[in-house]
Amino acid sequence: MDLSALTNLAHQASSNTVDHSPERKILTVNVDDVVSKTQHRKRFKNIKELSQSIESDGQQSPIIVRPINNEGKYVIQKGERRWRACKLLKNGTIDILVNQENQSLVEEAASELIENIQREDLDHIEIAGALQTLKSGGWKATQIASYIGKSKSYVSKYMALCDLPECISALNDNDLCSDTDTFLNLKKLYELDKERCEVVCSNAFQEEIPITRKESKDLLIIAKEPQPKPTGETIKEKPGKPSKGRNKMLIKTKIMVSFLAEDGQPQTGYILQNRINEDPHMICIQLETGESREVPASHLSVLRLAIDNG
Predict the structure, then answer these.
(1) Which of 13, 159, 163, 201 has its CA 20 to 30 A from that of 289?
(2) Could you give the domains of the chain?
(3) What span, in angstroms and rounded, lies between the C-alpha atoms of 95 and 44?
(4) In this structure, what DSSP letter does residue 100 have?
(5) Which of these ranges, 86-100, 133-147, 155-169, 246-260, has the smallest mean pLDDT?
(6) Which residues are 269's β-sheet partners?
(7) How far is CA 114 from the centre of its chain?
(8) Which positions fall inside the ParB-like N-terminal domain (predicted)?
(9) pLDDT tens digits, 281-294
């Protein structure tokens, strides 16, 4: 595929110059005669504010649409935010510019992607979806990287976000995570321990507190550690002689838990099993700093069991 031709498309899309030739004249149509296309961009911010601006100052530039289709509708190529804003206005009209050039869906996606990346209008999951469209159209990672002006590792990292489990992608939809590395850490955690990852995501929703990169990294490290053998009693006999009795050695376990502190930051520590609290709903925890504190049992999440060799 000729990338130079697509670059020209991107330059044309970003140009503020309007061609007023007969083939490119601006039309004013009913806003309901314009429809949206399949969008990689899922969330549109500040639509109400944009609508108020258009109402007071007018529509400063037309949206770009394809020629009218068999259903009598113009399909948006660029300018969906303006279209959504115009739909809120009472006059019910919108200015459009019909693009007569026959672009493939892949070419449109490429042009749209570079425009939105430059304007930082797409979130991480939306960028991943747009890159997937280019890949499905036959583009290689090196071609995509060259076209959008990013490294190949950038493309590979975002492509890995295309198949996030639902519990993780929902964090993005609810503004509880917006960091690529955090998404990837959680994805790996899901592959290692699905149940734990789902609990972590569920806690984030319930507490409405974003998951940090450090928290996701710590959880992944813990999940990768070898699991301790089941606890119980082991029998140790003296070598060389039959045992007349059994010396029993009880294996002690340490229970590592996590919880959210008063400032909203995640904390980890171990349950102090030799301490009994008068309130059965409170648990004594020793933090990694050595400090001990009482935490409601309902706020604790068990991370792992470890053998206490001390």
Answers:
(1) 201
(2) 3-159 (3.90.1530.10), 166-224 (no CATH), 248-307 (2.30.30.140)
(3) 20
(4) -
(5) 246-260
(6) 257, 287
(7) 20
(8) 27-117
(9) 788 888 877 788 88
At residue 18, the 3 state secondary structure works out as: coil
Give the pair of three-digit tokens for residue 187. Answer: 């994805």
Q: Tell me the DSSP string of 56-73.
A: HH---SPEEEPPP-TTS-
**What is the separation, in whole angstroms, between the first and last Cα of the chain?**
65
Q: Give phi and psi for 91, each to the nearest 5.
A: -70, -20
Nearest Cα to Cα of residue 6 among 143, 181, 130: 143
The residue behind tokens 């045992």 is 243
pTM attached to this predicted model: 0.48
The residue written with tokens 């009880």 in the block is 250
Other residues' Cβ atoms within 10 Å of the Cβ of residue 166 = 9
Distance CA 134, CA 60 (A): 31
3-state helix, strand, coil in the chain (%, to 5): 40, 20, 40
Cα distance between residue 136 and residue 106, in whole Å: 8
What are the tens digits of pLDDT across the range 196-250? 898 888 888 887 888 889 888 888 888 887 655 544 444 444 444 444 432 333 3
